[in-house]
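User: structure tokens for this one?
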Amino acid sequence: MRTNENRRTGKGIFVMNEQQRQALAQEIEAAARRGAARDQVELVSLLRTAQAACGGVLYRDVVLEIAQALGLKVTFLEAVLKRYPSIRTDQAPHVLTVCQGQNCARGGQLADFVRRTYQVEPGGVAGAGFRFQVSGCMKHCGSGPNVKWDGQVYHQMTPEALRRLVEQGG
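Assistant:
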């Protein structure tokens, strides 16, 4: 793990100091002893701990270190990370969810806009730094179309407003 490297997060520069790096290494060792390689609950707990230690975004070099320490393939960890969108990686520090509910009149148009504009399919990661998801009804039908950006619901979304949201990072 690189220790004094500057890393970008949605909130600025994050630097992991030696004490933080050692604490994370101890967490990884402890999780390995608890069987995190075979226990998904332990593994996800470790990934969440690592994300918190990294300032809210899980960095690729940390994922590589965890994979190596647990004897897991990186592709396996990446698959696990896809199932837990609340664990944010440096490739996708944000999550965009577009409502596809029946009453969200332009919901389908927004999803198509995201696909075309950011060249990403649902479940994928856009080059603009977000994981793209679609969902069922968000239960805000009267103020739709609706999207969620990092869990916060935005109403009456248009393609132009969605583009601004992505460009500003929320």
